[in-house]
Amino acid sequence: MLKVENLVTSYGMIEALKGVTLEVPQGKITALLGPNGAGKTTLMFTITGILKAKSGSIRFKGLELVGMPSAKIVQQGVVLVPENRLVFPKMNVLDNLRAGAYVHIGRDKAGVEADIKKMFERFPNLKERSKQLAGTFSGGEQQMLAIARALMARPQIFLMDEPSLGLAPLIVEEIFKIVKELNEDGITIFLVEQNAHKALKVAHQFYLLEQGQVTFKGIPGEMEEDEIIRRAYLGSSQGH
Amino acid sequence: MDDYLVTVLSNIGMISFIALSCYLLFLIGEISFGQQAFFAISAYTSGMATAMWGWPLWIGLLWGGGIAAIAAALLGVMTFRLHSMYFSIATLAFAEMIRLWFVIITYQIEIEGEMVGPDGAEGFRGIRWVFENNVTPLQYMGIIWGILIAVLIFFLLLERSRLGSIFRMLGEDGLLTEMQGLNVVRYRILASTFAGFIAGLGGGLYAHFATYVEPQIFNVMLGVHGMAYGLIGGLGTALGPLIGVTLDIGFLESVRAIQGYRMIVFGGLVAILIIFMPRGILDEERVNRICLFWRRRFHAQD
Amino acid sequence: MVDFIQNCIDGVMFGSSYALLAIGFTLIFGVMRRLNLSYGPSIMLGAFLGTYFYVQWDTGILTVAAVTIAGTILAGVYVERLCFRAIRQKATLASMVSSFVIWMQLEEFSIILLPERTYPFPALGSAYIFEIGPFFLRSEHLFMFLMASFLVIVFHFMLYRTRFGLMVRAISENPEAAKFIGIHINAVMFWAFVFVSAVGGVTGYLILSTDQQITPLFGLWATFKGLVAMMLGGMGSLPGAILGGLLLGVVEAQSLWYLGNDYKDLCAYFLLFLVLVLRPGGLLGKGLVEREDLAFRRV
User: Fold this and answer.
1) Within an 8 Å CB–CB cutoff, is residue B179 touching chain A?
2) Which of C11, C95, C44, C28 is nearest to C203 (CA)?
């Protein structure tokens, strides 16, 4: 569904992505692992058009995304849940959810309300706090809201940048459960994760990104998990 | 109603237009030091329309507002990638350019033996539509407030609309808004245009109220005051700027004891308020709480 | 051609004082990431105090200068406490607005002190006009230029050769890290303000003694000049401030000569607007937030 070929992104003097090639097949969960600074977030931002690629190609169902304005990319159904910006803090849950929907069904109020209802069924703890300002939520709740909001945009491919970052183990469990459920409902997922262990539990395939390049592609279970995790956290230069 | 009260209320009304204009830009997260430019543009152009071309007041006001809106749209287009301080200084520079332009420009025509029209630094005299048509001060105050209320209704509708939410999203986090698939530039320009039109309405009304305008009036201080009113009254609702205006013009202006010290008091008040209530008295959280309170009250009665 | 060069000379002479004002803005911006819009008015207040001494008690020029500098420092400390120290680190715009509003305060205070429209300001000495070929050079302009250059060197020395300057630069680059290595941010900011105010006071004195008069419009004027010069050269860049100041001076001198007084300020603002729209970082600047920084910033 998503084909990235030789993608190069640089900012200032730094070449963050040095020719990334990978593929995210439809209907599956693909994980992107790698140590800090490898360029995982940069890749996510480049795919969604927040950062401009220097060269290379990103094809989504055949459509070339490089050069497309980021708003248009989202309109194609490529939606990102970023790692460092989760919610609109001074808006309540309802407004945050509607914010996600504005791209497609802005004028279709009934459709939006129906989607919100479905979202509340899936995330019941959001329903109880529907009028609360999102800025008052805990980290886990904000992450849930961010995921729900991104879902309101009716994604065809769902990019998630470190959804479990900084969250308590119980919430992390919940989040990965949701990731699995979403995929079972048919949504393609591209998941960046530091928590390699958990990611490998749900992913159908994974890539390892180190220093701006893909260094490994694999299927969980085919290889010793320890080895993968070591490289995911430390990079191949340090482990063996 | 005595004359003094009518004047004060009229002033509050007219200045509110600038305050609301700045408020709209606050919503999208930008501080403008330049809304007085649109106040000025409309004051001059609507004055030209009624005093030089003989148009009726309504059309003159719409004309002035329209020209101001177009100028604002142009400014929005040119500043689309500027944020925070850079945007603020750019608006400041723009407003000063406009003001200095009016100091230079002279365009007069002869009407019944007299020269009428903008005369550079001397200003633009004889915007006498109000007097020639026997509109009393009280009636004019009614006109000002009538239009102001229409603008407030616009804001009320905006708050509940998709567009209003998008403006607020822009104000909170422009990049996150872009990630929702929304064209940030388009909405910025739209906000600029609306803000320019609103300030323009105020400018046109002012020109006909005072019958005389000069470039000096439209200086930075006017714009800064307009901006400060929103910060005082609160950025959570369109009533906030109005509260700010009333506090300054209605209250501070009237209290004789502080006549010569108004700036000091006003400045000190705003500075202290910014420390403790950075988004004004009626900020978003307070407004949210008030709304929740009323809603609970309603449901409790069922 | 002669006129053009003469204007360049005049422009550079006067531009040197703009450069000083711009440096004041730049330093505060560099250390605090905020714009101090009260800089001009605080200088004006100092100058008004100096004028008060001059007008009331006919004191000598050194006393007037000293009072001016002291007054500016006092006003600067007031602004620092109220607008910068009291406001949270992140609320940079709030500080800017606050400083704009305090400007109003300082201006009114000045007017209360000396209510007339204009007052004489003591000159530094009798004027003398040098002639170098076809060009003229006024002694007071030359003096201003030399003093300004001297002060720029002082600034440079302070920033790059003293421990204090090192701390200032450290805070400019990375306030968080500076805190971690034990730099007392508040104390450094305070003294930076004092230093900048002192230089501001000297600058104001130089400008006003050349002009030989002072009006309540000086505060606004000084702020605008310094701001425009700083933004031309690029926020946060010291060489940029200097370049911006000189450029502004030259542009003003040229437009004054060729287009007349009415167009002088218009051209300056137009240039500023142009630079902001086309190259927001300024001619030498690096203060502009790049998209990448924005994207990766933790919210």
Assistant:
1) yes
2) C44
